[in-house]
Amino acid sequence: MAEKNLEKIYEILSEEYNVFAETDNEWDNNGLNSTDFKSLVSVMLSAMTHTKRVVRACNALYEKATTPEQIIALTDDELTEMIRPVAHYNKKTKHLKELCRQVIEEFDGEVPKTKKELMSLQGVGRKTADILMNFNFGGETIAVDTHVHRLLNRLGIVETKNSKETADIINDITPKKYKKHAHEWLIQHGGNICISRKPKCQECVVYELCEYDEKTS
Fold first, then answer.
1. What pTM does this model have?
2. Is residue 214 part of a domain?
3. Cα gap 112→176, rounded to integer Å
4. Using one digit for the tens of pLDDT, what is the confidence trace for 31-40?
5. What does the pLDDT look like over 122-149, one tens digit per residue?
6. Between helices 163-173 and 146-155, what is the axis angle to 10°?
7. Domain total of the chain
8. In the annotation, is 145 catalytic?
């Protein structure tokens, strides 16, 4: 494995990509993370969905409801119609209603601030919890989605079968000084360059450090 190259990879990617706070990104521009609750809902709805569709769904939702109490007051049909642009909108309607009930009844209407408590909420998995911990609650953790999982395996940093395994390893081996922004560098490179089909190897700034058997020159 190329674990020995990890720090060098982070150094290169940190020079190539800005962190999200320095970019003109759609999440900030549309206020999807303007409160802890909106961050939680936005990230939960984003699973398996392109950012533009997440923005459409969240804008429609937040025009009518921005608190757990307001979302619960919506009918299921109303909520489903608002979030229809996201994948699995019927399942997410049920999950979101239950999540809101939990926040109200179990956490006094406030988004919980520990990873364990976040993951106790309906529809909240490891990735969502890690994102909230890193961006909202001052934690330093690397969230792993399909882009990050694919990238780290191709680079040879990990040899894993799923995102949870990848998250466990990359959080364990990443030096503390890189943890705060590693997710931001990795997801941009994985989503823009090391894409699933036909990765843009000729544009890759860490090409020389990559151990992907099928990389092209």
1. 0.89
2. no
3. 24
4. 899 999 999 9
5. 999 999 999 999 999 988 999 999 999 9
6. 60
7. 2
8. yes
